[in-house]
Amino acid sequence: MDQVSLDTLNPAEAHNLRTRKAVNLPYFDNLLKLLHEGNAAVAQGFGRHVHWGYWENPHQADATGADFAEAAENLSQEICRAGQINNGLRVLDVGCGFGGTIAHINEHDTGMQLTGLNLDSRQLQRARTQVVPRSGNRIEFVEGEACKLPFADHSFDVVLAVECIFHFPDRESFFREARRVLKPGGMLALSDFIPAPIIVPFAKIRLPERLSRGFYGRCNVQYTREDYRRLANASGFKILVERDITVNTLPTYAYIRKLAWQASFFNGFAMIETATLELLSRLRLIKYEIYSFQNA
């Protein structure tokens, strides 16, 4: 939409339109539409957490909505464990989605000051309605950018980025910002899709705009484990956890295929993207990994 058209909207509508263009995640467009329509299957699987699941025993996964919802909760738990989250901390969840990880911490820890950050005001609106602070905890959801965090220096004990860093404009800028807002000794914990070095040249091929954006939005899956090691060293972090949990996440794909039949959530192009990611994951060419870094 051009500037003249934007000028015909009220400020709130114009802001929301600019945000949608900046976020550019067809995945969330579909998800929010189905949630608004009251789709029970989508609400069960993705109404709280919007990320892959974690199964301690993947062979026991049954691809039901309840099973996946529990696995998604487990993934948040594993990343919180990597970030050494416990009572009495100030925690920032960047790319917080619908506030699922904030809700998880809120329900398991006390004396917490929890902040969720997201670029998409629609996601934040849902988070504010879904997550209510327990007694002794404080929760705030803030609209802002991951690479320009709107917080003072040394504001947090832990920064989280659960399955979202590949959407950020630049990992290096995010790490600098995360270190800036962390207290000395503070923790940064995240999950990411990590390519095997052999496929990195293919991941760097420039595709047409429609294909590069895709159903899941623009994703940078070019960052290897060695890249994270170099980044940690360059930005003043010490790596504490490098954990490959690919096998534990694989049942996610069976659940997504089942959901595609239950709800008009995934179009054909989305299923091709998802099937490709599953194949690469099963071939160990892309790994799902959890990292934690300490502000040295």
What does this structure look like?
With 296 residues, the protein is an alpha/beta fold. It has a single domain, classed as 3-Layer(aba) Sandwich (Rossmann fold). The chain contains 14 helices and 7 strands. A 7-stranded mixed beta sheet has the order 3-2-1-4-5-7-6, with helices on both faces. Helix 5 crosses helix 6. The chain is globular, with a radius of gyration of 19 Å.
The residue fraction in helices comes out at 40-55%
| Record field, number of beta strands | 7
The H-level CATH homologous superfamily, spelled out, is Vaccinia Virus protein VP39
CATH topology value: Rossmann fold
Class computed from helices, strands and strand pairing: alpha/beta
The succession of helices and strands, N to C, reads: HHHHHEHEHEEHEHHHEHHHE
CA(first)-CA(last) distance:
46 Å
Rg, Cα atoms, Å: 19 Å
| Dominant shape | globular
Strand content: 15-25%
Overall pLDDT score: 89
Indicate the CATH class.
Alpha Beta
Ranges where pLDDT stays below 50 over 5 or more residues in a row are 1-9, 11-22
What are its keywords?
296 residues; alpha/beta; Rossmann fold; seven-stranded mixed β-sheet; 14 helices; 19% strand; disordered N terminus
Secondary-structure map with pairings?
Layout: H1 3-7, H2 11-23, H3 26-36, H4 40-46, H5 65-82, E1 90-94, H6 100-108, E2 113-118, H7 121-130, E3 138-143, E4 156-161, H8 171-181, E5 182-195, H9 200-203, H10 209-213, H11 225-235, E6 237-244, H12 246-249, H13 251-262, H14 268-282, E7 286-295
Parallel strand pairs: 1-2, 1-4, 2-3, 4-5
Antiparallel strand pairs: 5-7, 6-7
